[in-house]
Design goal:
The protein has 263 residues and is of the alpha/beta class. It folds into two domains: 114 residues, Rossmann fold; 129 residues, Rossmann fold (3-Layer(aba) Sandwich). It is built from twelve helices and ten strands. Strands 2-1-8-9-10 form a five-stranded parallel beta sheet, with helices on both faces. Helix 1 links the parallel strand 1 and strand 2. Helix 3 runs parallel beside helix 5 and helix 6 packs parallel to helix 7. The chain is elongated, with a radius of gyration of 20 Å. The protein starts with 14 loop residues before the first strand and ends with a helix.
């Protein structure tokens, strides 16, 4: 048993760096802090809406041709619904939305849809691209599928849909941009081996972390991955994954750290 670990505060004395985009870091930090973790906020990416909505807006004019909309993240859901409610977008009615089957990668993404009055019909058991692909393949649709996603990230879903012969179009409606500078105090902590864990919740974050710190410096911390897809991306970059979530969400990420600290 790690002497720093207690049943009440299993992460007491443990420094965890949260690398999600600034507007998303609070939720993970709120899970870690009550467990005794010292939370260090260092976004590796920032999330912004797409620089050009022209292709998406054009698709909205033929929205009736789509029978399914796949939302691959909470960001995808928020930007999608915000845009279709924007006066600049071709009008999409509540009746139009009812005619389409919505699929979400996980419960958090489905909750965003519900906030806009839309019911998600399909959610995979696990919140990762492979499980999402499994679900879509097991539930074919006769019409075309619209995949709402970021401008970069895992190609697992697209590759699987192509292999399955699924008719689909991808619409990158938000951009994931690398943060290019590390806060000096965070850089110092990393150099001094004072960051126990670094969270990695997407392949884009993994790429950015490598650019920010370099492979050698990242050896001074332990990387915890949110899913096998993210782990594979990290390993492809030559980075070691020290722990991986069993449930592919923020709770699972925290549980993976706790389990590793306790072992």
């Amino acid at each position: 048993m790690n002497p720093k670990v207690s049943s009440e505060k299993p992460l007491s004395g443990c420094a965890v760096m949260v690398t999600r985009a600034g507007h998303q870091s609070g939720g993970l930090a709120d899970l870690l802090a009550p467990l005794g973790a010292e939370v260090i906020l260092q976004p590796a990416i920032e999330i912004v809406e797409t620089s050009s909505w022209s292709r998406f807006d054009a698709a909205m004019k033929r929205f009736g041709r789509f029978s399914r909309v796949v939302l691959v993240s909470t960001n995808a859901a928020r930007f999608f619904f915000a845009r279709i409610h924007d006066p600049a977008t071709p009008e999409i009615t509540a009746s139009d939305l009812i005619q389409v089957e919505f699929v979400a990668i996980g419960p958090a993404t489905a909750t965003v849809a519900q906030e806009y009055g839309v019911t998600v019909k399909l959610i995979p058991v696990r919140s990762d691209s492979a499980s999402l692909a499994d679900l879509i393949e097991a539930n074919p649709t006769h019409g075309k599928t619209m995949v709402i996603r970021a401008d970069r990230g895992s190609a697992v879903l697209a590759d699987r849909l192509k292999q399955a012969g699924c008719s689909f179009e991808q619409f990158p409606i938000y951009e994931s941009r690398d943060v290019t500078e590390v806060a000096p105090e965070v850089q110092q902590l990393m150099q001094n081996n004072m960051i126990d864990w670094t969270t990695v919740t997407s392949s884009a974050i993994g790429n950015s972390l490598l650019n920010l710190f370099g492979a050698e410096l990242l050896k001074k911390t332990r990387l915890v991955s949110i899913s096998p897809t993210t782990s594979a991306a990290l390993e492809a970059l030559g980075l070691k994954v020290d722990a991986e979530a069993t449930d592919y969400n923020m709770d699972g990420l925290v549980a993976a750290i706790v389990a590793s600290q306790s072992s």
